[in-house]
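Q: Predict the bound structure with flavin-adenine dinucleotide.
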Amino acid sequence: MSQRQSVPYIPDNAPFTPSQRAWLNGFLAGMFCHTTAPAAIAQHTAAKPKLSVFVGSQSGNAESLAKRFVKEAKKQGYEATVAGLDKITLATLAEEKCALVITSTWGEGDPPDNAAAFWEQLKEDNDLSLANLRYSILALGDTNYENFCGFGKSVDRRLGELGAKRIFERVDCNVDFEEGAARWQNGVFDALKNIVQFDDAPQLNGSVTSSANGTSSPPSPLEAEMSAGCSRKNPFAARLLANRKLTGDNSEKDTRHYEICLKGSGLTYEVGDALGIMPANSPDLVNEILKALHFDGEEEVSGPEGGKMPIRLALEREYQIRQPHSAFLNAMAEHDAADQYLKELISAEVRTELDKFLWGREVIDFLIESPRVKFSPEEFVSLLKKLQPRLYSIASSLKAHPEQVHLTVDTVRYEIYGRKRKGVCSNFLAERVSNDTPVPVFIQTSKHFRLPQSGDVPIIMVGPGTGIAPFRAFLEERKMNGAKGGNWLFFGAQKSSCDFFYRDELEAFQREGVLTRLDTAFSRDQDFKIYVQHRMLENAKELWNWLEQGAHFYVCGDAGRMAKDVDKALHEIVKMAGACSEDATAEYIQKLKADKRYQRDVY
Ligand SMILES: Cc1cc2nc3c(=O)[nH]c(=O)nc-3n(C[C@H](O)[C@H](O)[C@H](O)COP(=O)(O)OP(=O)(O)OC[C@H]3O[C@@H](n4cnc5c(N)ncnc54)[C@H](O)[C@@H]3O)c2cc1C
Ligand SMILES: NC(=O)c1ccc[n+]([C@@H]2O[C@H](COP(=O)([O-])OP(=O)(O)OC[C@H]3O[C@@H](n4cnc5c(N)ncnc54)[C@H](OP(=O)(O)O)[C@@H]3O)[C@@H](O)[C@H]2O)c1
Ligand SMILES: Cc1cc2nc3c(=O)[nH]c(=O)nc-3n(C[C@H](O)[C@H](O)[C@H](O)COP(=O)(O)O)c2cc1C
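A: Predicted complex:
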């Protein structure tokens, strides 16, 4: 009798949750099998089990996790491929034996753009049977949003409804997704081992290859697309045309207006889109890190995508050197025998204390506080994550500024644990980019944040602070189009004397009749706070009338507090001015969202 058949298995209908079942099956497999790795199984079956990973990703997080997952799967002996959710049809999905979906959520619990068409089909097709499909979902999201991981949850539910069988339960990850992603990856690999053992392997294998020696498979559609150079992977080296302070001398902020030239790039955008910028780290911070580690900067190390380079260049251009991630923390705890506290925090079951401890602490803090810890240059960079681009809501219309893109950026600076800290990208723009420094940029489309198709439809815009950015673009666009619909802007900032961004432009729009109404909320002009939502409530009746006339309602800026408070105020207005019950209010706002008349671009 073969080893495969002798291993006990927990049946699908046993009274366990999927993760308990996966764990128990893994445990039994471990007890009864000498060889559980797929590579070993492949030697028996002369085939590598096939694994398809499908990605829904807008700003690249899910995409990089998927690439990493596939790399690990290949190491473990799977024939793994990765493709965007825009690259599969329902028919091909139905033929899959095992699909892993890694997806983020955008808009209001919506799919990322590359998953939108797939989702439309999946939710409509009631004849589809996915009875042969096994799957698991890794959902990325942000708890600041109302529909946390909403799209991942919807896909999970829908695949289940269509008969697909979950092999490992969905993991919903917040912005710090590393730990959740690692948990999901381990759980999926454990669950897969059992499936590979107990299924008829050639059937699972789909396209079987006869080699078990790890030869590389042809690039998947997403890999091919990435190497062909889509804009995010291959950004345009743009030039900065203008860097102007929007805040006055007495301001507590340093918010700036940037103008960037897109000439020769072929890049275009619509108002509502965002610009992605790939920044470089601060050379001062790089010097501090090199000094703390006793490196001279010339030591050769690997880049995150392979290739060798001097560590100074790698730290400036390739790696994220501010926020420590789990690999770095684990290594610090391991190398520093004296640091019991960090060890305890890392090994605790809940992360609350660790998160508290990490708030505001950067890689440099750990290196300075633990001079005993020594890393080789290669080891050190292996503990860092790849530097990621930052997104900025576009503040201009191409019609008003051909071949240019404008931004409104708050320069992130603060002091904590006795050190001055600087946000990477906002300070790259503010301090280190001159007219001849190339700025790597790409366009990030935001299909969820669009002007109404008809210029006759009125719009209400709520954009405190940098949240004003897309509304400057909306106003420019509506002016250039000669749109007749009303435009109402709520703007908020700290002090009218020094924080009234684009005041001259807004007043000019008012004079020209483009900006129908402007309501401002300066929070620190008086002893008590006045915020945009207070101005909305003061004008509840009028705002309700605009909504009843079909106005679209837009919010941009801080997701953490402002967007939630504005949402509450909107509910209050519908309830009061519209004389609606709680239920009718919720229904009214839900309908606004469903009709794409309530759109948010919050961060
Ligand atoms: C769709 C979208 C649109 C956006 N549009 C805009 C825009 O129009 N304008 C704009 O200015 N930004 C915008 N942002 C935010 C922007 O992408 C960056 O996140 C922001 O500029 C900070 O990036 P950074 O590299 O300068 O800072 P980072 O190096 O990324 O540092 C930011 C981090 O520093 C830490 N931090 C910040 N303040 C403190 C503090 N007081 N104490 C302790 N820790 C702190 C936090 O961990 C924070 O996440 C947008 C984001 C998204 C997703
Ligand atoms: N992801 C990032 O790294 C990043 C980058 C930029 C900004 N942000 C976040 O976005 C926020 C906005 O930054 P910003 O520079 O655009 O604006 P901001 O200047 O911080 O705020 C604009 C105005 O909004 C007010 N405000 C504060 N809390 C509010 C609330 N709950 N509801 C309505 N208004 C509120 C502020 O008042 P008071 O300050 O007087 O209370 C201020 O008058 C920041 O707080 C920051 O957390 C994050
Ligand atoms: C404009 C915007 C809207 C978002 N909407 C949601 C949301 O509704 N629910 C949620 O859980 N996360 C939301 N997120 C968070 C993203 O899902 C999260 O940042 C994720 O890591 C992005 O992954 P990606 O880079 O693969 O697209 C939103 C982020 C942005 C910038």
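A: Confidence is low (pLDDT under 50) at residues 1-7, 15-46, 197-230.
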